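Quick one - inputs below.
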Amino acid sequence: MENHVRTLARLGLGVILICPVFAILFFAHSWSWPDTAALLSVLQSTLSQSIVSAAISLVLGTIGALGLLSFAGQPRYRWFELACLLPGFLPPLLVILPVFRWGSWVGHYPFGWHGIVLVHSLMCIGLVAVAVARLIQSKLGGMIELAWVEGASRWSLIRQGLLGYLRADFLLLGFYLVTLCFSSFAVPLVMGGAQSLTIEVLIYEKIRQGGAWSEAFVLSIIQLVFLFAFSLVLRRGIVVPPRGRSQVRFLSWRLGITVPLAITFLVVVGQVAGLVTGLAQLMAARELLLALPRLIANTMLVGLGAGVVAFLLMNLVAALSPHWGLDRFLVGYSSPSPVITAFAFLLFGFYGYWGSHGAMILGLSLLSLPSLYRLFGRAAILSLGRQVQVARVAGASWSLIFRVIIFPQVRSHFLWLAGLAGFWASGDFALSSIVAESNSTLGLMAKAYMSSYQLELATALSWILLLVSGIIFAVFGGWAHVSHQESYS
Amino acid sequence: MVGPVAVPRVRVFAFALIILVALGWAYYFLVHQDHALSGSGTGTPTLRIMTYGSFILPSGPGPLLQQEFEKSCQCRVEYVDGDDSALFLEKLAQFPDRQIDLVLGLSFIHLARAQAKVAWRRLKWPAHVVWSQRMPDLSLLKSESSTEFVPVAWSPMTFIYRQGEVTPPASWEDLSQPQWQKTLTTPDPRFSVSGVHLVAWVFNSESQALDEFRLKTLQHAVLSVAPSWSASYGLFRQKNAQLTFSYATSPVYHWQQDQDLSYRPAVFTEGHPYEVELAAIPLNCQQCELAERFVEFLLQATSQRVLMEKNYMLPVVEGVEAGTPFAELPKFPLLAAGDLQKLGADEAKWSAEFAARLQK
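Output:
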């Protein structure tokens, strides 16, 4: 009986994740196939930008990882990790705006294919640095120590240890990055210019220009199948382990940390331009000041709500694991376009104040789930496989296993992930602008100000948004910290 | 055996307190919001107006118009953000059960699509209104004495420049000169309604050869095709481009807010495209009478002034702009409304052609 329920729950989860794509069928009243030549060209540019972005991120992120390792074991390590992760979890607009500002400074805007690759790389390098540093600590730590004692040079450690032993992990990390860039929406939309359409952007174009829903459906299916087939070629998914405690300073290269930290610095400082004028405009905008508490409350509602739902979904996945099919699905699954997800929620009647905010919370947490699972959540779940196996052999029920073994060990880890989901969701405007009934969150208000002439005011709002997103992350982070201390000594 | 350790109580207490205060505060505002939206249970009729985001900004025309209208209507006005004109139509067509009583800000260029996708209520043509003489001839909107679409604001579209920085082009021929190479930013027509107007301008000449010439001119002049009007205009404001394609009324914002009189619209000898913002009532409206009253209200001189000053668009009613900076804008030769509307019907085809050519 329990097994039937688990099977049904797994199917239910799969259906929920896939259903936005099939919701399109309700909108398509006539059928047409996208132009093959255009489709091939878009597929080529989507794939090429994804692969090049992933390659650049892997190379520079690995250099960053070597820098990060030089701080291993120090209290500031966690702060460096957070700083590295920041550009990857900021709303894309907050990374794109500084690129425009620095572009204006050097007199060149990197629009088109190069612009997409640049922004994707800026967002992924820190993520790779953190992931690779953790992989090295957990998988190579002991070996590095031994090799160093026996006189191995740093270069041979990198060549034979890092590139030799971690080759498969690099390949998997590369796959994760390719899927991330392949299905990215906001970055190619803003940076693409008249060129370099990606499948996600083409789907949006089809819906905007007269509602070519059938073509949008075909494109979504192609994207899903493409990524899923890609995942099947690779035998296993990426597992980014928790931080280890091995002596890895022999492999570290302190200067390497400047790569991800410089990116974070450029992104953060880039937000400052126009801030003074923006704050002055904000102080003068009485109506906006009056609306600010409501905007902050709504943003917190969306961020905290998305975090809580992401936490619940991750726990659901953990409760339904280990399962080869579920794992394969989540590794290979790519979230549908935010635009399609948004229209699906409208189809299901998510109207009005609570409906639209409910759609934002559910939609954004569903969209973030595959990324959270693939990059960080999967490791925590898979690491419990042996304990679960032993408990099952001893006759424990699945519900007891979840309560006693799984939940206490994944709780704090998933709370961190919930914080990341909440942080990201609070700044969204891609899905939100379709389902929202008003400029109810800081992100939507900033977007609306950008569409008027008050760009500086949008900058000031972006800073407040950053602060609120930080608080949302801190709430989950604090909860995770307390939960971690409660569980372990 | 690993056992639980005591977490410092002060830390737990402080953390719980922060969460409680944050949740309590959020709850207060959310409940407050919900009461506001539900009309506090007074049974007051609610007029739901779908419009675009910048219209309902605290500094936009929406809140002021709402306040004024609510004084006399014994109703509540509720704005629904529909994103932009293209998405208004998609949302109305796909979700007809969603109560929308009035659509405000429908683009004139989407007229054919609006007629094909959504059923609209016929309104009496506002015969009492003295239309602005600067406005294009929009008689095609009128059928006998009724209409489905009422114009509420408008602006010619053109290239904006900074006086003292360049001598503006006065024709497409001028724009094709070497000095304008890589100087222009424009919104992408596939994602921005304002970009569609540039496409309309390019493909609306008297001959195919002239269309081709204009396309080539743009290939030479365009520095960047940005995904939105704001990105395109932002690049121009940061002085990375010398020209941008925008509303002819855009300079007035800088005259008024930045006290910068250098921003100017270029006047071409060829007829310019123009944006006309339309109001229309879906046939399945629930507060239809209120919606009609709101449309009439928008055509009053005081409302037109609010729309002009807060939305930086020209009024459709004669005499409103007199004595304001808007009156100082030059006069523009305009395209025929029929031609503009015809092109709008094939927007997807022309926009794709435009984008494809600019890639080369």
